[in-house]
Amino acid sequence: MQIFHNPNFNFVKYRWHALIVSWLLIGAAIVMIFTHGIPKGVEFSGGTQVVLQFDQQRPTIDQVRSALDRNFAGGGQNVVVNTYGAESLKSVMVRVPHTGKESGTELTQTADQIEKALKSANLGSFRVAGTEVVGPVVGEELTSKGAWAFGLSLFFILLYLWFRFELSFAVGATVATLHDVLITMAFLMFFRYEMSLNIIAALLTMTGYSTNDTIVIFDRVRENIRGMRKDNIKEIVNVAVNQTLNRTIITGGTALLSVIALYFFGGEVLRGFAFTMIVGILTGTYSSVFIAAAIVTFWPHGRGGARIAASAPGIAAAPRTAATARQRKGARSGAKA
Amino acid sequence: MNNLRWRILLIVVIIGACLWAIIPPAQKIKLGLDLKGGVHLVLRVDTDEALRLETATSAERVREDAATAGISGLSTKVLSPTQFQVSGVPPAQDALFRQSAAAVQASYNREGGTDGTHTFVMKPNIAIELAAATVTQAQQTIERRVNELGVAEPLIARQGTNDDQLLVQLPGMTDVERAKSVIQSTALLELKLVEGGPAPTKEALLQATGGQEPANSEVLPGVEGRAAAGERPQAVFYLVKKVPIITGRDLRSAKQGPDSFNQPAVHFELKADAATRFAKATSENINHRLAIVLDKSVVSAPNIENRIADQGQISGSFTMQEAEDLALKLRSGSLPAPLTYLQQQTIGPTLGADSIRSGLIASVASLALVGVFMLFYYKLSGVNSVVALIFNLVILLGAMSYIGATMTLPGIAGFVLTMGVGVDSNVLIFERIKEELAAQRGVRASINTGFSRVFLTLVDTHLSALISAAFLFQFGTGPIRGFATTLFFGLISNLFTATFVSKTMFEVVLAERHSDTLSI
Fold first, then answer.
1. Which of B107, B165, B257, B489 is such that its CA lies 20 to 30 A from the CA of B414?
2. Confidence bin at B25 (pLDDT 50/70/90)
3. What ipTM score was computed for the predicted complex, to two decimals?
4. What's the pTM?
5. What is the CATH number of the domain that holds A123?
6. Do A253 and A173 sit in the same domain of this protein?
């Protein structure tokens, strides 16, 4: 079975369209950051988050909110109330942007106040299933640590690819990855997901994942360069993208299946993570076809692909013609030895 | 053929060893705090306070040394955690003062000297060392206390950009307030002679001395008498000697036990040299009161009725639990500096259990979806990839169990992701085999080419993913580290199962029947 039989789409031709669409999305996200701000989870914004599990039935969001308005000092607009998890959990999450003082044991005062406010509202018996209190220092450190981890991981992937391929490939892959992360962040903005540790972890995981797709195509480009010396780089890249198209789609598909399972069954905590990965996988697949390859074609190449092939002596090139079939046997046994 | 047999044996041994490591999973797989429930705290050690204390002590020392040398009437002032000022040095005695102050020269730079005012600044390297030592000492103290609490597998680690934060994880701990109070209280025990009081207010206490604290004494808040059940003892003030006879460091042991009124109290024993000191002080001060000061507050002030040598008892209005915890804190030593809480997270056991359940459902659903797809798309070869995938998961869990890594909720996500992304390697190989088959090469040749051509691509993709997993590990704490660990081992075992195991399975099939078609 095959999705595409000998596909021959002209992907490289549409690289400009793809770039424009991507930039529009990223631009829209940047505008949203300025107008709406980045929604931050409790780990980044600092604050107090309490998960309450009710014994009989879950009260409505409005009930909880009005209870807080009445009984919780400084309640009102800054309080976030959400249902938490499946209906069967009967849980509600309440979050306020402030904490008690960082000194001593006062940090949890706000959490206690929330509990008291709801107890006095007679919404039914409940217990505190979990609390999270984060002082403002923690969020700042997390942000800088996350940025560093992301930057360094991209940088080392770039170095590795430079070493294994050549600079234009490495830059192409890195820009494509950066593109994927930006697009995914744009979608996180559109759907108002809150920045959490899990989402940062998903974004970091994406850097590895999205490079994978690109590497597979680049590997094929390099392999083809030997057999297609006379063709220009655009043609070579396009052939490689088409050759690997089935694989790209199937891989994207299986990865998507698993994160969709995670999205629907993985529970409340992992939903943001799963959403990030879903978008990341879709954009990663799209970008390795349209963006990464396109960037390689923009890069100035001395005498076309010859230099690329020469720079990778460790890899035997696969023949595209029957005439070189015999050579290949030699190459294969060489690789095995 | 022989070669093939060895390869099968190797696979069987590895899978067997991994299965042995994970069965039964409930005992062998270590669960993280987010799945098991427990308390997660991030504390900052207030190193400035430790520095300030050191500086104040040094200032006092300079003043005393000067007094010994015959320079009196000096006043000292702590300007910042690392600076103090001595003023009022008479011009005639300036040289003498400089000489006597040389005692602190190893740690402080002296500046100024005009108008008889000298400023002492702690040397930066000394300050850094002292701060680092304070954090280490706090960490060790907390470790001892947590161990005494009986928490299984606690984690106490340093973190933060200034390296002054401590991460404390107490899996399975449900009583957060108790955990916090045990960890946080400085538990600085001092036994001091009472000079005056108790009095209801500071002013009343200092009336006799004209509203000023005498040079060698200080006023401390405290309580008087024993409270009736459910009531707070009366708050009062004591005037006590500044210099303690005994401090927490002099204790050899401390344990909870009843006092003479059969109320919970803490019994302690003193080390030999402290016992001598204590015996002397108590015999000289019979019928004086002795203040038992805990964290700068008098918990009780019993009358010294006879000479006490190597043991004593701290009674106050304690509950059994409080006495128990106080004994624990005294045994584990006092904290060198106050702690502040930066972050606190508690995960109730039901929340954790719920996460495990949804994680398992997601894993099974993911395995089913991916497996069915592979069987549907690659037919019999799909069986090969599904077996490889299951082996992948077994090896991943086995490796985590061997190194004692913790499974966290994001770790489960990594597990699910390993399935979805892991089959990529199979897809890559199978697609290549299909291409080769389409080019009319034989089945065996196609399989060989498929595996050997794709192998280097797989090394590239896996290494770049390992790079991002490594940085993820560096970035995260707790749950995120669990995720990075899962990804890391998932990638390595995937490389093994997708190439070595899968290839071996193809070869087994090829050895059985010499077919010229392949179900792929």
1. B165
2. confident
3. 0.78
4. 0.74
5. 3.30.70.3400
6. yes
